[in-house]
Every structure is written in C-alpha cells, then in structure tokens.
Sequence to fold (388 residues):
Amino acid sequence: MAKKQLNVALIGYQFMGKAHSNAYRQVARFFDIEVEPVLKVICGRHEQKVRAAQERFGWQEYATNWEDVVARNDIDIIDIGTPNNTHAQIAQAALKAGKHVLCEKPLATTLEDARASYELAKKSGLVHGICHNYRFVPAVAYIAQLVREGRIGKVRHFRATYLQDWIVDPNVPLVWRLDKSIAGSGSHGDLNGHLIDTARFVMGTEFAEVIGLQETFIKKRPLLADTEGGLAGFKAAQDMGEVTVDDVTAFLARLENGATATFEATRLAPGRKNYHRWEINGEKGSIVFNQERMNEFEIYLTDDPQGVQGFHLVQSTESFMPYMSAYWPVAHIIGYEHTFINLVHDFLLAIVRGTPFTPNFEDGYRNQAVLSAVERSCETRQWTKPEK
Ligand code: SOE
Fold:
C-alpha cells in the first residue's frame, strides 16, 4: 500500500536540527506505519551552514528565510528547532498558514506569548506539539502507566534534579542560552522545563503552588567569537559580556494530587553531564529513573515478600513496553535519538489517524505557567500559584 506522504519543513539546523532530521529519516524505517515524512526543506539564516546541514541530514532543499518557507503551499508540517526567542513567532505564523506545528521547548520566552500560541493552536484544528522528548523514553512512558494504574498507590513525593556541568568553566563564552533576551531563562527553562513536564506526565497532575530560589554565580563571560559545532564548538572573543540568566534554579511545589515535590536545575555541577534523575514515592512503593541509564529503572514495592524487599532494577527494553516493539529483538538497548523518533511517530499518526498528540501547546503553556510562577516567587519570596 502506498504510504501517505507529509512534507516537512525544518526551521533550525544545529543540535535539535540534527535530532529532528534523524527522527524524520528513521521513523518509517523502524515503525511500520502508513505515513512517510518527506524531508522537503531545511531553513536557517547562514546559507553556508544550512546548505551543509541539508546535505548531511538529507533534506531535498535548503532555504534562508523562514517566512517564505511557512508561506509555501507544498508544506504540511513546520518543525521549529531554532533559538527560543523565535519559537512563538514562527509557530503562530505557521498555524495561521494552516500547517501542523512541532515546536522545540519552550513554547515561548514569555507566558504571554506562550498563551497566544496555545490559544491560536486550540482554535486551529491542526496538530500541534512541543518537544518534551523525555516523555518518549520507553522507561518514562512505562513508569507513567504504572503510576497512573496505581502500582505505587497514592503519590506523596516527587523529587527531581537535572544537573549538567557544561558552563562550569568561566571561559565558556556567552552562547545564546546565557542571554535572557534569546533563551528566556537559564537552567530553569532549559532543564526544570523538562522536569515539570515529566511531573505532569507521570502523575497526570497540575501544579498548585511553588516557591523557588535562583542564583547566577558567573556573572560575566567572554563574548562569543563564532560557533562551529553548536554547543560543542564555541570560541571565545576577548571582550566580556553579562550573563542575564540563572545558573541554578531550585523550587518546592505542592501538586494538585496532594503530593509535595522538589526540583533543582543547574549547569554548574562538576562531573554531572546530563544527570536527569527523579524519584517518586507512593504509599505502596517508590520508582527511580535516571536518564543517564535510560534503558532501566528501579522500583521498590512494599507488597514484595519480606526478605526479598529492596530496589529492583527493571530493564525497560522489553517489546511490550511503550515504543520498544519498533526496535530490536530480545530487548537490545536504545538511546537519546530514539526519543525523538518515538515523538515524531506519535505526531505523524496524530495527523493521519486523528489520534490526540501530547505534549501539545496546552502542555507547553501550562509548563511555562509553572516556570513563570517560580520566577515570580523568587522575586517576591512568596508561595505563588501558576496562572490557569
Ligand atoms: C542543553 O542544556 C540541553 O541540550 C537542553 O537544551 C535540552 O533540552 C536537554 O535535553 C539537554 O540539555
């Protein structure tokens, strides 16, 4: 049977450009689905670099003006993998042009813009998604099933940390992720944003109120001379500039399901590369997930017989677990890139089958409402409720 083809335009070509391009290329190789994405056009401001990305990732064409791309009649999906301050503008233009939209997180750099994108998406009848890719780790999707089925009983605590160290050297230059006018925030939006999404997803709950603290330890850094390889290849200039985002943000939360929760995100934790770990405690057990060991999780169940009680390691690569039947026989492991393949799989099926897709722009807005409530609480030093 001929597959339905959907033409994709990808705006942005660096870190997320690579991850998303690979997902579109691979999705119909692994999943046996009735749809085939066509890698039509990749777009970026720097002609030489975007042309190199076009060739390397296998796109049919390249372009340098996203507005022209959004206006094209032959494009079905606009995928946004650009720096954060452009997400809302591109997403809104794409929705107005009748395109399905997949947007990297965050939805916007302000709550106001995030709400505008969400309102537009709600009215559009189009499929919209936000790339919180960690929901698509099979272990995470499976844990969400266990928790929602009540396997660990009523949840009392959620305890999450996301620690990195890639800016611990004060000579790391002022990349856009350290500039509030482009990134919106620092570790908070970049890393807590993922943890907030995980909490909402795994427990199916919203945030009732939050209180946080933020700190910027390295207040000045060399300006950026050039960037060759995205996060990996930046070069410092002589002059210094101001860091305008948080290095660390930690916060406490009360969730609507009655649980208490703690969050900490920093990029100044030497030795922690992508230490994205969370633990959930219920009345009948606990579950621990660590993204650095994404093919497994730990579970402790109070109804296990005495004498063999303890944290058990569960391999999350069995083919009955979410997404895993698409990959290898006998439970071979998968990696970071597969989270994007799984996400794109659900997104494409939402378009061709009309199935609901989450996380969508509503999730993006609710996430931003929590991020923004934490920021307000840091200023006022008061418990703060996220906007509805
Ligand atoms: C960089 O800090 C980063 O790539 C984030 O932007 C991602 O969202 C996170 O998944 C890993 O770290």
Notes: Residues 361-380 form the longest helix (20 residues). The two ends are 45 Å apart (CA to CA). DSSP finds ten helices and 16 strands in the chain.
